[in-house]
Amino acid sequence: MTLLALGINYTTAPVSVRERLAFPEEILRDAVTDLWQQQDISEAAILSTCNRTEIYCTTQGQGVGPVIDWISRNRQLKHAEFQPYLYAHTDNALIRHIFRVASGLESMILGEPQILGQMKSAYQTASQAGTLGKSLGTLFQHTFSTAKKVRTDTEIGSSSVSVAFAAVQLSKQIFDDLGEQTAVLIGAGETIELTARHLHQNGVGRIIIANRTYDKAHTLASQFNGYAIALSELPLHIAEADIIVSSTASQLPILGKGLVESAITKRKHKPIFMVDLAVPRDIEPEVAKLNDVYLYTVDDLQNIIKDNLNSRHQAAEQAEEIIDTNVEHFLSWMKAQTVQSTIVDYRQQAFVLQQESLKKALASLQNGGSPEEIMQQLAHTLTNKLTHTPCTQLRKASENERHDLIAAAREIFKL
What we know:
The chain is α/β, with parallel strands linked by helices. It contains 15 helices and ten strands. Helix 5 packs across helix 7, helix 5 packs across helix 13 and helix 8 packs across helix 9. The longest helix has about 55 residues. The two termini are about 35 Å apart. The model has no long low-confidence stretch (mean pLDDT about 90).
């Protein structure tokens, strides 16, 4: 059995590739079930965020080929369209990788906390789908405890650095006074909530939240003295927006070039600052070609993010030490499982030999044989059967000059 992680992230693939390999929440359970049903895959989970898609599974030693083939079929992509962007980790490297991902050390924003919640959602989906076994399920539990220790024992999350924070920082560079601006936020998830909070803390003039479910938009908007609208009403309000931040799970763009162009005309070419934090993208890329529009994607925010990371680098070094320790703990657990499996197999083998010998002895007793002779024969037969295979293997070890095996046998049998 091999633990395998296969994925892409913001460092290996552009957003145009990541959005094609994304698994929206509504199809994630079916996708992980379909993956688990593939031959040679015994456990499976899928993590899908705007910055990464990663597949975790246990395989029977067939390598990454079956998983790559499955991605191609499931996402209806040719291998050449995504395979060059993939990375793979197995066993020890996978353990370290998943610990680092959950701790925020692999994130675009070093130490960001959202990834741990997303990892827990991936685990919950796989658990509900019944695609987790002992190895992958235990790995996730160790992952969560490691990430929690990193967050509580270091200052990795002490400073406010997130994609939402970076978006608001960029808006402050474009507009001298946020108090005079109207922000339209599309979506009602965690990223939009963070964006709304940062905008509100920075004194933005007005917040409008649009969402497919009006009640969710209203609940969120009420926290920040905002105004809620249904997503269908969005075209009526685009012209009011000085700032637009979008982060939904829509599979199709929400804002097209024509709609934004019309809004710019109504605004008499007053600039609009737009940030598309969604994967797949919510705003058509062609919108960036319009005059008086400043459109940024999650990839464009990296320079701003870098400026806010200095205080986290020292904490990251401490986090690596915690991860090193916990990798060793999980490896010890895995080794213990291997030993336990060997013990169970050995005892089962001995039990089978015992039952065979006992069956013959009982038959002899029923046929009127001498109990004393039968007992002696039972002891002799059972001893021979239990020692036959070890003695044969020791002779082969001697012939092959495997002195390490001979020494190990003497230690195991206390000779």
